[in-house]
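The records we work with from here on pair a chain with its fold. Here is one such record, which you should read through line by line:
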Amino acid sequence: MLFRSRVDYRFPLSSVLLSFEVLTVYLVIFSLLLLLFYFRKRIMLISLALGWFFIHILPVSHIIPFQIIIAERFLYLPSVGFALLLAYLISRLRLWTKNLEIGVVVIICLIYAGLTFQQNKVWQNEFSLWSKVLKHEPNNPYGHFNLGKQYLERELYDRAKEELLKAADYNPISFDAYNSLGMVFSRQKEYRQAINYYQKAINRK
């Protein structure tokens, strides 16, 4: 995930309660809960880390459904638990040698620094951001819409038209895609086409 992180994710949802994927998730959650209770009186920091993770992932676990299925920001607070657990495991390395502990910390810092540098390139502007989304998910309607908007702002109307038409194809109920297509055609002085797409946009309001 660290190497393929992006602003928008699309994936098929399982409709089978006892599918392999769903059972695997259940097994992982159950195993982590067992570890939490096992370590609660043995190593409190491990229980704290796991408890922190579960408490802060719970509000975004769709017990009460909402529109966004998954987003990186859902892990901001839960990842503190991961950081605590990682810090504890690294601290145990000093049982062998302090140099090993320092070496592991340096390696982890270098890895995360490199990943942060790469991710900053992606978030440099909206054009690079949505291009990255479409690189991994070519059928993402929001990716095509937002990239089309960037082409429209740069007055690259043919490229904007191409992306916005794809956005409309992948998401036929999209008001925004048709409205933006109307803007593209009006700026190209193709007013009949512009009216046609504005009408489609109105019909989807």
